């Protein structure tokens, strides 16, 4: 097992900056604003040939806002899960009562604690660390996370307490991103799928700000759930932090294998939901649609919602639609079957002879239309990629093939190979005319014959 290291500290001391430095990523949002990180964020790092898991936490504070109580609870859970804790303090600020309170809380856990002073660039370690010796944690590490100074020395000291482990090969499994507008229940659904309170849920839009990657296993299958920030219409996004959160959510779509699009049954399908679905289809991701808060509707309302969804989702007829209640758990278990089936369909490898047999059958049943008096010819097809499946079709005049016939071919492939849950891409290759650009050279006898014919034509005129 790789060691698990948790970063804790009060708000705005540089925890997320250190997380990005140790994982060599930009996964954690960083801005000059306290309270940006709220949920635990897990990443994997490697320094000096040693691998480790890293957990970023929200800032611990004594203020009485309800959301801060959830943040503190998540941070303390991360300390319980850790093999080691990096207690981060601000070297450019005096020792505060909040630092002393955090230190007192950390001593309750049977976990190795390293006191790390951040933002020490341009300062002498002895002077900066003098005041923090009062916390009583022994050796003090002085670093600058923003400038990547002192980090390697810190991690060598931290990792020396753990035995050397052989490199692990830990695949992420099926990456599943939960996408939707704010307050549709994404974090509640994540907790329900995991079976415990992993991410913060709160009756306030915008509680989740970053994309949270959570690996877990179910019935022998590895998954990585990605909880994302709610995406609102661009005109409704004013805060800079929320703009970054939206970018993270859209990046999560690109990182996922399967996307669960969460809709609110009470509000139905909105224009913003349609925009999000368009982004998912454009990214070529396998898709499962979950209609949440279904338990609170009357039967007549449910029929109305089903009718509206069938009318508005006609352009995504390949996605399985589930009606669920993330709060009470009804229908949530069925999502895993659809997610796995969509992932398998997106990664299916199909042999070329089978593809060509289906193409021939489709052409025989409904021949391509005439273009400028000539029939479009579809000669052969082969698979050009997966996730999503891409089929490359070669033929004549294929660039003029109507969209309706392309959809007919997609439906034929989907039905024949059971490619439900994933979009299908078609790439058409125009067969090159071997005589294009080549002029036929006439023999002397042919030239004389042509001249005689031209004179005959002129006499008739």
TrEMBL record:
- Cited PANTHER family: GTPASE DER (PTHR43834:SF6)
Q: Where does GTP 1 bind?
A: 9-16, 56-60, 118-121
> What's the stated role of this polypeptide?
GTPase that plays an essential role in the late steps of ribosome biogenesis.
Renumbered to this chain, region (Disordered) spans: 429-461
Which residues are listed for GTP 2 binding in this entry?
180-187, 227-231, 292-295
Q: Write out the entry's keywords from A to Z.
A: GTP-binding, Nucleotide-binding, Repeat, Ribosome biogenesis
Task: Kindly provide the name given to this protein in its UniProt entry.
Answer: GTPase Der
